[in-house]
Amino acid sequence: MSIGTFTIRPLDPLKDAELLHRWVTDPKAAFWMMQDAKLQDVEREYMRIAAHEHHHAYLGLHDGEPAFLMEKYDPRYVELVGLYEPEPGDVGMHFLVAPTDRPIHGFTRAVITAVMDELFADPRTRRVVVEPDVTNKAVHALNEAVGFVPEREIQKPEKKALLSFCTREQFLAARGVAV
Q: For the whole model, what pTM was predicted?
């Protein structure tokens, strides 16, 4: 069964702020840590990201409709500075699937696969790095399903996180593609 077509475009912090605000303040987005954010807070945060040389935000579309948020960052400068030894080709990633009243079986896994396809489309990307909250068991399972291997727990200012890595080869193997 095909889930549909995914495309990814750069996020427009002002045009997309209302949509993002609904997503990040939804109870299902608790791990995004913006539950009490006002619209202006969301605009400010994504304007900051848009202006950042090493952090980028994208809006993911499913059959042309906004469906998820993707962020990529350079862990040498953002999020993980001093918390691990980055390697050349490391790219950090966050993703958030939009809340829905009509869930589609397999949708979130299809989203993370589309995100990983996008990141590995850049030949310079050798390894994707994630740092989800240690208690976010659902995302740990999704990460593992696409090839991530947990390294260790780390303490970030805002949370205890599970540092995990996925090489291009691990991602392809998880998809059943011969390497």
A: 0.93
